[in-house]
Amino acid sequence: MSRNIDLQHGEIETKRSEIIEYFTQSFELFEKVFDCLADDNVFYERPEKRRHQLIFYFGHTAVFYINKLILGKFLHQRINPKFESIFAIGVDEMAWDDLQTRNFEWPTVDEVRHYRDKVKQTIIQFIQNVEFTIPISWDSAMWAIMMGIEHERIHIETSSVLHRQLRLDFIKQTSFWKTKINYYEDTKKNELLEVLGGDITLGKNLDDKFYGWDNEYGSSSYHVANFKASKYLVSNGEFLEFVKNGGYQNEEFWDAEGLRWKNYENVSLPVFWSFENGQYFYRTLDKKVLLPLNYPADVNFLEAKAFCKWKSAKMNKKITLPSEAMWHLILKQINQNNDEYLSETIVANINLEHYKSPCSVDEFRQGDFFDVIGNVWQWTSTPIDGFEGFEVHPLYDDFSTPTFDGKHAIIKGGSWISTGNLTLSQSRYAFRRHFYQHAGFRYVEVSDDYEDFFEYIEKDQEIIKVLQNEYKINNDFYTKLAQQLALFLADKKISKAAVFGCATGRICFELSKNTKRVFGLDFSARFIKVCDYLKKNLELKFNDSIVKLDDVGLEKVDMTKIEFWQGDPCNLKPTFDGFDFVFGHNIFESLYNKEKFWEILAKRTLEKSFVIFSFSQNENLEISNNFEIFHNFTIDTFNFVILRKK
User: Fold this and answer.
1) How many angstroms separate the CA atoms of 65 and 636, rounded?
2) Is-contact 416 355, C-beta < 8 A?
3) pLDDT digits 0-9 by tens, 428-474
4) Cβ contacts of residue 277 below 8 Å, gap of 6+?
5) Greatest pairwise CA separation for the chain in angstroms
6) Do 61 and 28 meet the contact criterion of CB atoms below 8 Å apart?
7) What CA–CA distance (Å, rounded) separates 237 from 295?
8) What is the 3 state secondary structure string of 586-613?
9) Neighbour-count burial for 529-557, b at 16+ CB within 10 Å, e otherwise
10) 189-219: pLDDT as tens digits
11) What's the gap between Cα 205 and its chain centre?
12) Does pLDDT of 164 surpass 80?
């Protein structure tokens, strides 16, 4: 099975055929992950309470293709607007992910299968007919297709993790996922090997031949001192020492975040372990077996960090997780031939090329180390952030930036089920520290003065520009607008307000003074992340400055009234309904379907409700017949129209 498609070289029709094959392979492999579910009822199970029911993910990867092609204006007709709304958002445990079961009426599995079949045919036809050039750049329609394929390959892996957490009676044996566990009684003793430090630059250019996510581009340089790294990934046998030595019970080994998680979840073993009748057992995707001591330990970041603190005390050395730069230095040390794309050719337990599960930590030698690439992902100590020169891809602005919050740690190396971009050494994926993936770790010995530190500082220049505008002290525009809104709403008794295009939240905070509930909605998760952060922390650092809500008179706002959600105003989720007041500031230029927006607005607002829109003075606003003009006013270069629903 091909690992990646070269987007820089080749003939048009040959490349078209390659991409059709790559798409079909991806689409069908994703469905194979769901073939192991015992029956259709299991699709409505929720093995992880921080995730949707499995039916969401079954629909999600298909609607992604359509939504991105619509957004890019490469496709002009939806297949199923309802599906393309309810299956759109809710993957990474963000505050704006709607995980309330009562808010969804999920379709039947057969309906989703039928929808997936339609999408499959639509995308194949699109690839067959779309015009494109080589190299394929990230503004190309074919790049949008590759984005959908690589997104689906991510969910091949993440869905398999969820299925691995299901009760065994919800899983059926299939020939594709059948695995053989080869384990030994004893594990090889791990040891620390020298790694040469030095200066290293991470990142890649836009002319790289393989597809990449936006956080991979740009570059940042680091200096790393010499260090030592464990020869093997930490095995179940090595981690079992930590367990038997009271590692989960001794609070000294856990930081504050780890303690909160461990105590809340009442955790005493890794998620895929169990202890029954005096023996330890191990869960694969489709079976439970005696714990293979020589397999890598699947743990989250918090467990890996606690193990390192225990190991430090035991060895009287400073043991910790490697940084992203350290992992690359280990990779550099095993890459004797200076192969730029070593991860494309290296022999490893990756890409489903050898096993449908992890394997022994001493099976795949790579230089002096084992499993630098493959077997299971490896947690690093590095919170993900953008490299210098980072730019958001306009079709998927919520892929990276919502994770630039200091709470998502980078994983490297790929796992046995990683395919496509996930197999590349340049790939940068990050998960919340309490998440489980097919992920383990190796540890490093560092000098006593080594520190891991991260402070969330907003670096997105577009966000910073809006923050400076909305929260600038004595900003006449927002002061006047707040006064106008307060005056208008003073006697209206508004119960449920919505702000479309809420940006960084200033209008929502102002509206909450005169309304019972405010829903801030924005198409961009980059803005919603900032809104949610300001709501919780009342301030936000950027560059050498800081935004404080109390500087603009918002320190006493009742934050319990306000909710921020990612949403598409032209294809809004059914849960956003029953508004008696709507505000939208300068949103019409960004709407890809104004007619659909007015239709949705008419359905989601109550009779006699009020709507206020702003638009630039050189813009003509065409108003729906469902509304009539109630009043107008002007602030600076913006006209405001107050509408009343008929």
Assistant:
1) 41
2) yes
3) 999 999 999 999 999 999 987 776 666 777 878 888 889 988 998 77
4) none
5) 80
6) no
7) 8
8) CCHHHCCCHHHHHHHHHHHEEEEEEEEE
9) bbbbbbbeeeebebeeeebebeebebeeb
10) 899 999 999 999 999 999 999 999 999 999 9
11) 22
12) yes
| Residues sharing a CB contact under 8 Å with residue 15, sequence separation 6 or more, in sequence order | 5, 7, 134, 136
- Taking the C-alpha atoms of residue 97 and residue 566, their distance in angstroms, rounded to an integer, is 8
Q: Contacts from 615-621 at CB under 8 Å and sequence distance 24+?
A: 615/586, 615/588, 615/639, 615/641, 616/586, 619/588, 619/589, 621/588
Q: What's the one-letter identity of residue 602? A: A
| Distance (Å, whole) CA 219 – CA 203 | 4
Closest by CA to 163, choosing from 283, 10, 289, is 283
Taking the C-alpha atoms of residue 489 and residue 493, their distance in angstroms, rounded to an integer, is 7
For the whole model, what pTM was predicted? Answer: 0.82
Amino acid 382: pLDDT: 94
Give 94's pLDDT tier (boundaries 50, 70, 90). very low
Query: Which residue reads 């004893």 in tokens?
Result: 186
213 backbone dihedrals φ, ψ, rounded to 5°: -80, 160
Residue count of the chain: 646
Average pLDDT over the chain reads 91
Q: How many CA atoms lie within 13 Å of 426's alpha carbon, on the beta-carbon side?
A: 28
Axis crossing angle, helix 461-470 with helix 525-537, rounded to the nearest 10: 50
Closest CA to 87 of 385, 76, 75, 109: 109
Question: What confidence tens digit (pLDDT) does each residue in 104-153 have?
Answer: 689 999 999 999 999 999 999 999 999 999 999 999 999 999 999 999 99
Is the Cβ–Cβ distance between 396 and 144 less than 8 Å?
Answer: no
Token representation of residue 385: 């952030």
E strand or H helix that includes residue 566: strand 562-566
150 CB-side CA count, 13 A = 24
Tokens standing for 366? Answer: 């790579």
Q: What angle do CA 74, 80, 84 make, to 5 degrees?
A: 70
pLDDT at 116: 98
- Which pLDDT score is estimated for 179? 72
Q: Kindly indicate the confidence band of residue 97, based on its pLDDT and cuts at 50, 70 and 90.
A: very low
| pLDDT single digits (tens) 393-429 | 999 988 888 888 888 999 999 999 999 999 999 999 9
DSSP state of 309: H
Q: Which amino acid, 464?
A: I
Q: How far apart are CA 7 and CA 425, in angstroms?
A: 17
